[in-house]
Specification:
Order of helices and strands: HEHEHEEEEHHHEEEEHEH
Strand content: 15-25%
Number of helices: 8
Oligomer: single chain
Helix content: 25-40%
Distance between the termini: 12 Å
């Protein structure tokens, strides 16, 4: 499948639309007293560039688990869906993601790994929860197990890049438990087990819903105990108070740009039209990528 090549001009247009979404999300969280932090490349860009990293094609944010759970409830209660829709896999919707996304429906972007998923295909803001890592080694190992079960049955995708044995076991489990109701029951049970730990009783936090690579690092909870602010594209955005410790752990010397060959967007895009609402695209091309 051909992938969309992002020219510098198209990439900048994409970034500015994502900025609209980030501002809407920030304002919603502030209105509802929800804590969130700018993370990853967006935070590095704020500190190093004053905004987007020139080659970055998205923005990620994170909320403490408690506020993350409140977000979709408040969003629905306040009818916040409009141009920006909150998407979350539940009994009524399957997104293919293991975390919440906010989607800009004023444009169309279809990722190569979501061409067969029946959702509004707009630009997305990835929203991750911050979870508690238990102090005990056995409890932490069990948290890994429950998280992998949660990820498998929520996303319903075999983790081909994480070893042959894991991929084989995943295919077996999905083959045994085929029904929607039983899969929903399993991932909800796994979610309860992996998120049952209390911040007051443990020393570290972790990112369980950002994928296998990111669920292993543990961060001292003091890193997230306060909120600091950075300037992102001229706007005031929150970040964790221990942002330097967090970024150094994850990225090393984050203030030094990577080699030129690594300075490229990291998402594979199958289709992109920043001028056409995704509802129009979905109604006209619903089966375009399906086979």
């Amino acid at each position: 499948m051909d992938k969309v090549e992002l020219t510098p001009e198209l990439l900048r247009e994409l970034q500015l639309k994502q900025l609209d979404m980030l501002v809407y999300f920030r304002d919603f969280c502030e209105k509802n007293n929800l804590t969130f932090w700018l993370i990853g490349g967006g935070l590095i860009g704020a500190l190093r560039e004053g905004g987007f990293v020139p080659w970055d094609d998205d923005v990620d944010v994170m909320l403490p688990r408690g506020d993350y759970e409140k977000l979709p409830k408040l969003w629905k209660e306040q009818h916040a869906d409009g141009r920006f829709k909150l998407l979350k896999t539940d009994d009524d919707m399957f997104t293919g993601n293991i975390f919440i996304t906010i989607t800009d429906t004023s444009c169309t972007m279809v990722k190569t790994n979501q061409t067969t998923v029946d959702i509004p295909h707009g630009l997305v803001l990835d929203v991750f929860p911050l979870d508690v890592a238990p102090d005990g080694r056995f409890a932490r190992k069990m948290q890994f197990v429950w998280t992998m079960i949660y990820s498998l049955f929520l996303a319903q995708i075999v983790p081909e890049n994480n070893g042959g044995l894991m991929a084989f076991g995943s295919r077996v489990l999905l083959g045994i438990f085929r029904g929607k109701k039983i899969r929903n029951k399993i991932w909800r049970m796994a979610e309860r087990h992996m998120t049952k730990y209390k911040l007051s009783e443990n020393k570290c936090v972790t990112e369980l819903c950002a994928g296998p690579k990111w669920m292993r690092p543990e961060y001292q909870k003091r890193i997230y105990e306060g909120v600091d602010y950075v300037t992102f594209e001229g706007l005031r955005m929150p970040c964790m108070s221990g942002y330097d410790e967090y970024l150094t752990m994850v990225f090393g010397d984050y203030m030094t740009p990577p080699p030129v060959e690594q300075q490229k967007p990291h998402h594979d895009i199958a289709y992109l039209d920043l001028d056409t609402p995704c509802e129009v695209y979905d109604s006209r091309h619903k089966d375009e990528f399906k086979s």
